[in-house]
């Protein structure tokens, strides 16, 4: 038989073909000769736990061969095996191959165990399997990584203790990964965690992405925070490490402790953006603790709080401040202006939040002031970073009276939008004035039909229409004559 | 209702067998093996139970909390024996934990291999909502073999399958696991009831489950949340003072007729139904005693039943209408459609921004952000930074963790400047040998996960031109499930592959979907059941997708059976990304 070059050079016992080329009969044919070679080279290992010599290799090879033939026959016609990326190559750690061979060689005694296992009197041992070796060394055997993984998948008795060399352990891990069974991968990792120093395990996991992710998930689930941090650190995944540690603040209940915890987080290696956010988180809680213990009693009495402000988002805090601490001087920690500045809240966001809070309190004067700007000549003008139609919406949702609403409807620039909003919220004056300004008699007449006869709106329309000549100059000849 | 059903559509196999199988297994486990006569549901509070022989039904998601339960008992001086029956499979990690906590002897374990819960004639669920997070976010393959086993069970009861198509890494692994189990077990020759199988990973199409559902059943799920085929209608719906639980499946005759309909069509249908019912009732007037007697004994019960169902669904429709109007649903849908179409993206961004600023539903904001990212292949760095900052301000800074998760999964990412990545990859490829390159590509995969939605949309005609009229009364394609705005990618793929009998001609598409497609045939199996197709969604599927497949089935004379790890929707999917369960 011919072997790949690299394997020959490294001088690995070629019996590994038993597993590697299990799929093809070519491998089977080559086995017998390989076995004989192997027999001479390696007889030190062939002693089982009990010290008994294990079954002959040629026997085990025959076993393998027949199993290949039987499954192979099915496979010829039935569903084919497909390449399942990203399964890592089995030999991803170069030195892990020999163990496979060793495992294969000992299949013999496993057979006898599984037979005896079928015996009902012995079945009782199954749940108690992981007891000291002494209790089962008489009958436990050495299964290859492949067999072990298969047994684990099938929920049968298995033993991992015999995978002692690093190569064996890694081979077992790679085999578990190749079987795509996360449950088994994790089980193997737990064993490796117990039996390898973390430095070695971490080192090996770097090149094993799938196993690594299982390991991380396992540590997360059982809450081994410290080890996880070390793992990320050793892999230079500093941002993950920082987030992982930051995550722990969720478990701190007491607000003062949580604040201190967050303060401690500031030194973690977050990405620049995240560092700013975590800084904000700390500052926010610090503020909230101060705000929580301040405020004037009367407003709280009038509008009792539904919940404490602790651990609320920034915008909720701003809302709270606009609600309970409006008008405090900028220097006060609880004042809206201070919060706005500290957390770099955009004009738009500030306005939306403040508007909501003041409208809720029906403080229409404050609402008005939010939009009023003075130019250098002292004229006042209303400005807004968001369209006035949205402002109208928000005010309306806060049950603003028509007198307030119409001021803002009037500020909507788009005439069509203005009229439709005015109609929606019944701001008659706005509609009438708009039509007047547009010199649209027709629409005015139509609208007159919609308002209550004799109401102030009705009279206003009448007045405009009768003054139309004076107001609008010439009466257009196309307009119909008024009918009273 | 408006659909013509092809007469040659095959009959579905009977899945009630699965339920019986599972139940018998459990009863056997409990009665024969453990002498148990009572079941307890475990919640996160001290359990009050009197019998010594209690049995826990425990969500596997929280397996690591179990020792707390036992230790709490011990602290109270209650020494008991515990039995954990894992379903569907044992967790080695959990057993190990029991061992480490020193309670292994007090607690013994067993398995109840309950894989499949038939939710309806054509829906089977593995009831593993945790699948999505575990596999796609954490990269944990603990459910892969479960999926393989579920397939194996279906294969041995309703198979043998003759063709298996699939796309996605997990699908490939599940296929492999199933194939191995087939080889391990014995095969019996039997008449196949299911011919073809299609496996699909949820992350092949993440856009579809993030869209607002507007088909009746999907909408009910979005608003009231259907659990295990059962929904709890609030007093708002029942117009009484208490809520009621209702099974929603094909047994409900009214529901069965509206479940796949676009919501705009439902009212018309219900009112027609109500009128018919009125007429049927009205027949009573002018009846003599004998006629009345037959009416009461033969028709009245059915009419009463129908009346009850009708009023229920009318109530639900009204309640949903009210909720959606309040939420400015129209505008929301407009934004979604613009995103799908790639039209007026700046307007969409400012809409999302305002949504965030006004602290409207957090999950909704997140959903829109993810849709933006998926359809645009990531956000511009400037937009990403600003939207993230505003999101954190509005909903809490701890969502830093959520953003990190969304990024990991590729749901919400920043655009990589230029072709940096591909350049980097090819350079790496040149420098190192194949083995390492493969590993590195893996490591990059989360970064490189581009959704390519626009290109896919063009290639597969997923987004019809918006200026075309779409008559929702007479749907012409699967796009009707999203008001004619979008054909779900997942279902379109299934349609294409079945039409082509494989992936030939779809090379460009699979390349954009990161490959991992396969199509295999078992030449030995000759079956007449080619037109019954089992579609397995790994990571969950939505009711809208099921509706789309039912539509496709009616059009092509096929029957689809949907097997899913769980029924999902945008809220469930995104909530599974949250890290706030401390």
From TrEMBL, chain A:
Where, per UniProt, does this protein localize?
Cytoplasmic vesicle; Early endosome; Late endosome
Any idea where the Vps16 C-terminal domain is? Answer: 166-262
Please name the GO terms of the biological process aspect recorded for this protein, alphabetically: intracellular protein transport; vacuolar transport
* Keywords linked to the UniProt accession: Cytoplasmic vesicle, Endosome
Q: What is the protein's major site of localization?
A: cytoplasm
Q: Which InterPro entries match?
A: Spe-39 (IPR040057), Vps16_C (IPR006925)
Where is it found, in Gene Ontology cellular component terms? early endosome; late endosome
Query: Mind telling me what this protein is named?
Result: Spermatogenesis-defective protein 39 homolog
Protein species of origin: Oncorhynchus tshawytscha
What gene is it encoded by? VIPAS39
UniProtKB/TrEMBL annotation, chain B:
A Pfam family name for this chain?
Sec1
Q: Name one GO biological process term.
A: vesicle-mediated transport
InterPro entries per the UniProt record, alphabetical: Sec-1-like_dom1, Sec-1-like_dom3a, Sec1-like, Sec1-like_dom2, Sec1-like_sf, VPS33_dom3b
Q: Mind telling me which GO cellular component terms the entry cites? A: late endosome membrane; lysosomal membrane
Give the source's domain of life in one word: Eukaryota
Indicate how the chain sits in the lipid bilayer.
Peripheral membrane protein
Q: Any idea which UniProt keywords this protein has?
A: Protein transport, Transport
Q: What protein family is recorded?
A: Belongs to the STXBP/unc-18/SEC1 family.
What is the designated name of this protein? Answer: Vacuolar protein sorting-associated protein 33B
Lineage of the species this protein comes from: Eukaryota, Metazoa, Chordata, Craniata, Vertebrata
């Amino acid at each position: 038989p011919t072997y790949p070059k690299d394997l020959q050079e490294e001088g690995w016992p070629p019996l590994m073909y038993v597993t590697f080329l299990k799929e093809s009969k070519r491998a089977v044919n080559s086995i017998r000769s390989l076995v004989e070679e192997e027999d001479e080279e390696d007889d030190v290992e062939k002693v089982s736990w009990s010290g008994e010599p294990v079954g002959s290799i040629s026997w085990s090879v025959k076993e393998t061969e027949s199993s290949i033939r039987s499954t192979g026959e099915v496979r010829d016609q039935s569903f084919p095996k497909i390449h399942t990326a990203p399964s890592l190559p089995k030999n991803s750690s170069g030195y892990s191959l020999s163990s496979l061979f060793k495992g294969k060689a000992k299949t013999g005694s496993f057979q006898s165990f599984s037979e005896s296992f079928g015996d009902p009197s012995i079945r009782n041992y199954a749940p108690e399997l992981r007891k000291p070796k002494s209790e089962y060394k008489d009958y436990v055997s050495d299964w290859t990584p492949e067999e072990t993984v298969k047994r684990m998948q099938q929920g049968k008795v298995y033993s991992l203790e015999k995978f002692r060399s690093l190569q064996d352990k890694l081979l077992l891990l790679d085999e578990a990964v190749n079987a795509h069974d996360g449950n088994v991968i994790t089980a193997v990792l737990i064993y490796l965690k117990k039996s390898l120093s973390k430095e070695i395990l971490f080192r090996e996991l770097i090149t094993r992405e799938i196993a690594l992710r299982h390991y991380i998930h396992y540590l997360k689930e059982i809450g081994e925070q410290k080890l996880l941090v070390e793992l990320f650190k050793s892999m230079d995944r500093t941002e993950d490490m920082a987030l992982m540690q930051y995550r722990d603040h969720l478990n701190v209940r007491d607000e003062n402790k949580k604040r201190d915890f967050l303060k401690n987080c500031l030194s973690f290696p977050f990405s620049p953006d995240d560092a700013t956010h975590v800084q904000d988180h700390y500052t926010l809680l610090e503020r909230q603790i101060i705000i929580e213990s301040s405020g004037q009693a009367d407003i709280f009495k009038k509008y009792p709080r539904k919940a404490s402000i602790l651990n609320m988002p920034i915008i909720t805090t701003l809302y709270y401040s606009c609600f309970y601490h409006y008008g405090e001087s900028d220097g006060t920690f609880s004042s809206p202006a201070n919060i706005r500045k500290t957390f770099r809240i955009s004009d738009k966001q500030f306005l939306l939040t403040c508007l909501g809070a003041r409208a809720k309190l029906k403080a229409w004067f404050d609402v008005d002031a939010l939009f009023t700007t003075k130019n250098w000549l002292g004229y006042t003008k209303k400005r807004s970073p968001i369209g006035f139609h949205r402002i109208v919406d928000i005010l309306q949702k806060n049950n603003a009276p028509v007198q307030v609403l119409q001021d803002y409807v009037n500020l909507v620039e788009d005439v069509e939008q203005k009229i439709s909003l005015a109609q929606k919220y019944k701001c008659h004056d706005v509609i009438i004035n708009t039509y007047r300004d547009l010199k649209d008699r027709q629409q005015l007449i139509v609208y007159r039909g919609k308002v209550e006869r004799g109401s102030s709106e009705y009279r206003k329309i009448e007045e405009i229409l009768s003054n139309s000549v004076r107001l609008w100059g010439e009466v257009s000849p196309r307009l119909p004559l008024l009918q009273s | 209702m408006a659909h013509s059903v092809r007469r040659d559509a095959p009959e579905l196999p009977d899945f009630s067998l699965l339920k019986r199988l599972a139940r018998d297994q459990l009863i056997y486990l409990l009665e024969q093996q453990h002498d148990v006569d009572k079941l307890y549901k475990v919640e996160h509070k001290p359990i009050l139970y009197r019998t010594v022989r209690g049995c826990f039904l425990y969500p596997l998601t929280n397996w690591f909390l179990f020792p707390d339960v036992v230790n709490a008992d011990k602290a109270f001086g209650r020494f008991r024996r515990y039995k954990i029956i894992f379903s569907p499979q044992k967790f080695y990690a959990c057993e190990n934990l029991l061992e480490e906590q020193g309670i292994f002897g007090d607690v013994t374990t067993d398995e109840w291999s309950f894989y499949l819960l038939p939710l309806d004639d054509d829906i089977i669920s593995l009831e593993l909502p945790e699948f999505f997070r575990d596999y796609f976010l954490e990269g944990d393959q603990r459910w892969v073999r479960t999926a393989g086993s579920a397939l194996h069970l279906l294969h041995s009861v309703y198979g043998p399958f003759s063709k298996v198509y699939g796309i996605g890494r997990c699908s490939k692994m599940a296929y492999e696991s199933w194939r191995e189990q087939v080889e391990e077990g014995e095969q019996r020759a039997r008449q196949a009831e299911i011919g073809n199988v299609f496996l699909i990973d949820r992350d092949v199409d993440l856009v579809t489950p993030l869209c607002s559902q507007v088909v009746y059943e999907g909408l009910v799920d979005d608003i009231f949340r259907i659990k295990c085929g059962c929904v709890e209608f609030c007093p708002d719906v029942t117009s009484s003072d208490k809520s009621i639980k209702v099974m929603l499946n094909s047994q409900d005759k009214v529901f069965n007729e509206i479940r796949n309909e676009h919501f705009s069509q439902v009212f018309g249908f219900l009112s027609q139904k109500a009128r018919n019912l009125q007429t049927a009732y009205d027949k009573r007037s002018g009846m003599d005693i004998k006629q009345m007697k037959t009416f009461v004994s033969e028709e009245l019960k059915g009419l009463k039943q129908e009346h009850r169902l009708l009023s229920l669904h009318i109530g639900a429709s009204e309640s949903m209408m009210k909720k959606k109007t309040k939420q400015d649903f129209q505008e929301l849908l407009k934004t979604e459609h613009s995103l799908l179409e790639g039209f007026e993206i700046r307007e969409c961004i400012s809409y999302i921004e305002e949504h965030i600023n006004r602290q409207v539903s957090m999950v909704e904001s997140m959903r829109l952000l993810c849709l933006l990212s998926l359809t645009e292949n990531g956000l511009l760095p400037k937009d990403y930074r600003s939207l993230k900052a505003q999101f954190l301000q509005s909903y809490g800074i701890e969502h830093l963790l959520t953003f990190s998760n969304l990024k990991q999964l590729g749901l919400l990412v920043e655009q990589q400047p230029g072709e940096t990545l591909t350049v980097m990859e090819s350079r790496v490829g040149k420098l190192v040998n194949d083995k390492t390159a493969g590993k590195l590509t893996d490591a990059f995969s989360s970064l490189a996960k581009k959704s390519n939605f626009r290109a896919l949309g063009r290639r597969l005609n997923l987004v019809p031109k918006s200026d075309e009229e779409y008559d929702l009364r007479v749907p012409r394609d699967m796009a009707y499930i999203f008001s004619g705005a979008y054909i779900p990618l997942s279902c379109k793929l299934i349609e294409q592959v079945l039409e082509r009998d494989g992936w030939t001609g779809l090379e460009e598409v699979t390349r954009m979907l990161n490959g991992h497609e396969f199509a295999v045939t078992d030449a030995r199996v000759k079956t007449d059941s080619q037109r019954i197709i089992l579609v397995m969604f790994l990571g969950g599927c939505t009711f809208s997708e099921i509706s789309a497949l039912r539509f496709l089935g009616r059009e092509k004379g096929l029957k689809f059976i949907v097997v899913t790890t769980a029924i999902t929707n945008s809220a469930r999917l995104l909530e599974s990304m949250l890290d706030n369960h401390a």
